Amino acid sequence: TGYITLDQGYGNTGSCESAITYIDGDAGILRYRGIPIEQFANRPNFIEVCWLLIFGNLPTAAEYGDFSERLTRHAMLNESMKHHFQGFPTQAPPMAILSAMINALSCFHPDMNGADSDDQFIAAAARLISKIRTIAAFAHRSSIGRTYNYPNPKLLYVENFMHMMFSEPHAPHETDEIVRLAFNLVLILHADHEQNCSTSTVRMVGSSGANLFASCAAGVCALWGPLHGGANVAVLDMLEQIHQGDLSVEEYMRLAKDKNSGVRLMGFGHRVYKNFDPRAKMLQEVAEKLLKHLNINDPLLEIGRRLEEIALNDSYFVERKLYPNVDFYSGIILRALGIPTNMFTVIFAMGRMPGWIAHWREQNLQGARIGRPRQIYTGPTEHDYVPRDQRG
Ligand code: CMC
Predict the structure, then answer these.
(1) Are 277 and 322 in contact (CB under 8 A)?
(2) Catalytic residues
(3) Which first-to-last residue range defines the signal peptide (predicted)?
(4) Is residue 112 in a domain?
(5) Is residue 163 a contact partner of residue 149, using CB atoms and an 8 Å limit?
(6) Do 284 and 306 reside in the same domain of the chain?
C-alpha cells in the first residue's frame, strides 16, 4: 500500500485546509479570521467572536441580535436532564459530567444533527454555546450540594454564567463591568487555536458523520488531559505546592529540567509557539489589572512571575524555546473571580466551544474525507496459531 511516513504526534502533518485561525509560532502571531488577537482586547465580546469564528465575518447588528436572542432562548436544559446530575457522585470531575451531558444533548435534539441545513446548524450551534454554560454551572452546584440557579433571560452571557454558578441570591461582582470584560476576554483567548488535540478530535469524530453534539463531547474529553486544557489546573496545583512550602521555586525548576522527575513546568511550552504565546501576554496583563481592581493580593501571582523570570533566563528553557502558554496566567484570573480550581478546564471548554463548532462546520462544508491515519506496524511477523493444550 505504498510508503507510510511516521510523524509521531502529527508535528509535521497538515490534516486539513482551514480558513479559521492563523498562527505564526515563530513570530508569536495569532489571528481569528485574519483579525489579530490583540484587537479583541478593547471591548471584548465573546458572542461576537463566536459568530466570527463560525461564520467567517464579524456579525452585523441584525446577526448579533438574532444570535444573542437564540442564546438567551436556549439557555435552559430540558428538565429531565437535571436528573443526570444527581446520578454522578458528588466528587465527580466536572469535565466528565460536561462531556456526558453534551453528548446527552443529542438525545434531546435528535432532529438537529447540524448537517442537514444552515437553519438546523445555527440552532444546534446556539444550543451548544448556550447550554454548555448551564451544564457547567449546574455541575458545580450539584457538586457543592446546592440548588440550581436557573438562567436569567435578562442577563448577558458571562453574567448569566456567574449568576448560575454563585447567586445566593446575588453573585459576587455581578454588576462589575471590568470583571465582565475580563471574563469575556478569557473566553475569547481560548476560543480557537487551529488543530490542537481537542479540535483535531472534534474534526476526527465529525469526519465519520457523527453529529455536532457527539463530536463536541469528544472534544471535551480530549481537552481534559493535563498536557492540554487540564494544564490550567496543573499550573494552579504547581503554584499552590510552592506556596504551601512543599518545594521552593528553585527546587521546582530543578525538577522541571530533570527528565526523570516526571515534572514539567506547567503552563510552559507549546507545539507551535517557539516565541511568546500572545494569549499568555494578554492574560498576564488581565491578571495584573483584575487583581488590582478587586484589591486582591494573590501570592500565587508573585510565584508565577518568579517562575517565569527564572525560566526566561535559564538556558534549558531558552534553548528549547519554551515560553508561558495560555494556561500559565488564566488560573490566577479565574481564582480571583471565585471560580473553583476544578472548574478551570470547564471554562476553557466553554471558551473553545465556538472553535470546535467552526471546525466541525468547515469540515462538513468541505465534504472532507473520513479521518483515518495509517501506522507503522511493529508487531510479530507471521506465525501459527498454537492450540491451548500445546502452549508452554
Ligand atoms: N517543562 C519542562 N520541559 C519541557 C516543557 C515543560 N513545560 N515543555 C517541553 N519541554 C521539553 C521537553 O522535555 C523536550 O525536551 P528534549 O528536547 O530535551 O527532549 C522539549 O522541551 C520539547 O518538548 P516536547 O514534549 O517534544 O514538545 P511537544 O510539542 O510535544 O509538547 C507541550 C508541547 C505543550 C505538551 C509541552 O510543552 C508541555 O508538556 N507543557 C506543559 C503542559 C502545558 O502547559 N500544556 C498546555 C499547552 S497550551 C494550551 C493547550 O493546548 O491546552
Answers:
(1) no
(2) 270, 327
(3) none
(4) yes
(5) yes
(6) yes
One domain, residues 162 and 311: no
The residue nearest atom 41 of ligand 1, judged by CA position, is 266
User: CA-CA distance, 69 to 73, in Å (whole number)?
Assistant: 6
The answer, yes or no, to whether residue 172 has pLDDT greater than 90, is: no
132 and 27 co-located in one domain: yes
Domain that holds residue 303: 231-336
Are residues 331 and 356 located together in one domain of the fold? no
199 in Cβ contact with 231 (< 8 Å): no
Mutate to test the pocket of ligand 1, among 201, 265, 320 (most ligand atoms within 8 A of CB): 320
Q: What letter does residue 12 receive in the DSSP assignment?
A: T
Compare 50 and 90 and report the one with higher pLDDT: 50
pLDDT digits (tens, 9 = 90+) for 229-238: 999 999 999 9
Where do we find the cell 454522578? 88
The domain total for the chain is 2
Find the DSSP H helices in 87-176.
94-108, 118-143, 157-166
What strands lie across the sheet with 35-36, from one edge to the other?
A: 21-24, 29-32, 35-36
Grid cell of 158 as nine digits: 458571562
Residue 25, Cα to own-chain centre: how many angstroms? Answer: 19
Can you tell me which atom of ligand 1 is nearest the CA of 268? 7
Mean pLDDT of 313-324: 96
Is the pTM value of this prediction over 0.90? yes
Q: What is the pLDDT of residues 237-277, one digit of tens each?
A: 999 999 999 899 999 999 999 999 999 999 999 999 998 89
Residues 137 and 187 in one domain: yes
Residues 194 and 92 grouped into a single domain: yes
Is 2 part of a structural domain of the chain?
no
pLDDT at 1 > cutoff 70: no
DSSP 370: P
Q: Is the CB of 265 under 6 A from ligand 1?
A: yes
CB of 325 closer than 6 angstroms to any ligand 1 atom: yes
Q: Are residues 193 and 103 in the same domain?
A: yes
